[in-house]
Design a protein that fits this description.
Strand order of the largest sheet: 1-2-3-4-5-7-6
Number of strands: 7
Largest sheet: 7 strands, mixed
Shape: globular
Radius of gyration: 14 Å
Structural class: alpha+beta
């Protein structure tokens, strides 16, 4: 439950747990798209660990278990948010909302004035979450990716 979760910055030591959650969470996306060869499912532990070295992401922790994670990095004044993943048994409890707010706050403090993230055209739950949290569609690609942006004030 989101009420009992604490949010903290992501760390390289979290890589193993984050990879497990990422794979579990994105398995449902793979089913939606009929494609198990997507980067969140094929990323290695070493790649993830390297990605976390200077990352503005956060994890949600409940009873010492990481139950959600999001990654982000700064590109100038743009916060690039990626791989929001919630453990399947924790989805729908508000953790995505908490993690987005936390990573936006970290981005703001690091100098970001706008955030960007993306999802696929078939990922309706993700689209609802992003739109509910104030993101607006900024681009739709020919291969079905939908990019969202939000001003960080």
């Amino acid at each position: 439950m989101a009420d009992s979760a604490s949010i903290r910055p992501i760390d390289t030591d979290d890589a193993g747990e984050v990879l497990t959650i990422q794979r579990a969470a994105f398995a449902s996306e793979a089913l939606i798209y009929g494609d198990a060869d997507m980067p969140p499912l094929t990323q290695t532990l070493e790649e993830l660990r390297a990605e976390l070295v200077e990352n503005l992401g956060c994890v949600a922790v409940t009873d010492r278990r990481i139950v959600g994670a999001v990654r982000a990095r700064l590109d100038g004044e743009l916060l690039l948010i990626g791989r929001l993943a919630i453990a399947p048994d924790q989805q729908g409890e508000g953790l995505g909302t908490l993690l987005l707010a936390a990573v936006e706050d970290r981005g703001r403090k690091a100098g970001a004035t706008e955030a960007e993230l993306f999802t696929g055209a078939l990922s309706e739950a993700n689209q609802r979450l992003y739109e509910r949290e104030g993101y607006h569609r900024s681009e739709e690609t020919a291969d079905g990716e939908i990019f969202y942006r939000k001003a960080l004030r």
